[in-house]
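Q: I'm building a small set of examples for a reading group on sequence design. Run inverse folding on the following structure and report the sequence directly after it, with nothing in between.
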């Protein structure tokens, strides 16, 4: 299965198929819809980083889950914390962990912005025993947006390698991914790439992630009020990344279109037969023959309607 999933604020077709799903400020709906073996991340929006008591922050986020639990569920605290506050970040993580353990959820910790942190920050965390994180239950979260539409973007893409180099043995979750050139609602992929170009980038990024067993996956950002990051009707195509089968996506779309056209023709024919709405005497007989011999060429099954 692909390592690409959706950063979701509602339940979608993609959240029902992905190997990793992040729900953003919306309760547990998208997480409940995810496949049973999918990784789950939850974030409650709380503004910019504040050096609050970690136990208090964890309880606030967990309350948003409304009692929902899953063995592969982790929560984020703040995201985008300044790397120069690493000591306060580690303190907050250590304070949050006992609450997470008591509540039966994992922690997706750190969540630095794209292009951060410097290697020395990971070394500091390693020297503090990763702030008490359990590699068997918790994950380290990062953000990775390309700003040139390719994976050949070492400042922004693939920086998670430094975590592995510094000795983190647990899972790594890229909890925000995609394209972003300026960090504004109008600097997302729709501002610079076509649907096909963005789709190709996600496939390349998926191939990069597949080389690292520790990376559990990446969720592609979209959120209310960020129009250039939204998926709209192309979510169906992007959701196929979870199977890696573009041919299947095209076949499914063709099948749906064909069945809709067939159903429309059947409805029209039945209307003519039942109402006698014909201009010529041979029309009714032709419709009956067409319905009785109608074949669904996509499935190969003969459909033979019967009439009372």
């Amino acid at each position: 299965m692909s390592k690409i999933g959706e950063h979701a604020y509602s339940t979608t077709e993609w959240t029902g198929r992905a190997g990793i799903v992040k729900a953003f400020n919306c309760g547990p709906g998208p997480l409940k819809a995810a496949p049973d073996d999918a990784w789950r991340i939850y974030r409650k929006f709380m503004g910019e980083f504040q050096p609050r008591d970690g136990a208090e922050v964890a309880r606030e986020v967990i309350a948003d889950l409304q009692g929902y639990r899953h063995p592969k569920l982790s929560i984020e605290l703040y995201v985008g914390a300044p790397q120069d506050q690493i000591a306060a970040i580690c303190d907050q993580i250590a304070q949050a962990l006992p609450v997470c353990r008591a509540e039966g959820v994992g922690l997706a910790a750190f969540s630095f912005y794209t292009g951060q942190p410097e290697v020395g920050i990971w070394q500091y965390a390693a020297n503090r025993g990763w702030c008490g994180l359990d590699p068997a239950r918790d994950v380290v979260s990062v953000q990775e947006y390309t700003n040139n539409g390719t994976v050949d973007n070492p400042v922004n893409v693939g920086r998670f390698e430094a975590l592995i180099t510094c000795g983190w043995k647990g899972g790594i979750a890229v909890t925000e991914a995609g394209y972003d050139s300026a960090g504004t609602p109008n600097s997302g992929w729709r501002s610079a790439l076509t649907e096909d170009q963005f789709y190709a980038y996600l496939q390349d990024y998926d191939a990069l992630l597949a080389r690292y067993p520790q990376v559990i996956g990446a969720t592609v950002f979209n959120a209310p009020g960020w129009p250039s990051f939204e998926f709209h009707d192309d979510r169906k195509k992007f959701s196929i990344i979870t199977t890696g089968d573009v041919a299947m996506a095209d076949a499914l779309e063709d099948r749906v279109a064909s069945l809709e056209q067939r159903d429309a023709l059947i409805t029209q024919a039945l209307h003519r037969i039942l109402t006698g709405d014909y201009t010529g005497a041979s029309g009714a007989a032709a419709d009956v023959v067409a319905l009785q011999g109608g074949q669904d060429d996509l499935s190969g099954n003969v459909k033979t309607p019967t009439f009372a």
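Residues 295-308 have pLDDT under 50 and may be disordered.
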